[in-house]
Amino acid sequence: MRQLNPKTNSKVKVVFQDLFTTVTLTGIVSAILVGMTVSTIVTTNAYCGQSKDVLVVGTVVDYSESTTKWGRLRHRIKFISSYDKKLKDFEVYRKYEIGEEFKKDMKMGTWGQLYSID
């Protein structure tokens, strides 16, 4: 590796290299920790503790579709949920019309996050 990065006498270059290395490694470690934290929350939400069955019902107020870079069509709807009166944004499997009713049996996990098995 020394051949690719010869020793330098420039103090500015040494400080810049140290700073760059520190920032890069801090970013990598942070990304790993964030990924592990999110994964732990999602997993424990679904599999630890008691899950409560919730019927999510609402009238679709917004619909949008987009295509992924692999050509898959995604459908997204927004609706006001009947169980907590908040605006929800879900990715769904089919096209919905504005004003159509959305109804889905879901579960609420330990952390209060909604999830669906099917």
A few lines on this structure:
Keywords: Membrane, Transmembrane, Transmembrane helix. By secondary structure, the chain is an alpha+beta fold.
Describe this structure in words.
Keywords: Membrane, Transmembrane, Transmembrane helix. There is one protein chain. This protein is of the alpha+beta class and 118 residues long. The chain contains one helix and five strands, in the order αβββββ. It has one helix at 11-47; strands at residues 52-67, 73-80, 87-92, 101-108, 114-115. The protein has a five-stranded antiparallel β-sheet, with no helix packed on it. The longest helix has 37 residues, at 11-47. The model has no long low-confidence stretch (mean pLDDT 90).
Please supply descriptive tags for the structure shown above:
118 residues; alpha+beta; five-stranded antiparallel β-sheet; membrane; transmembrane; transmembrane helix
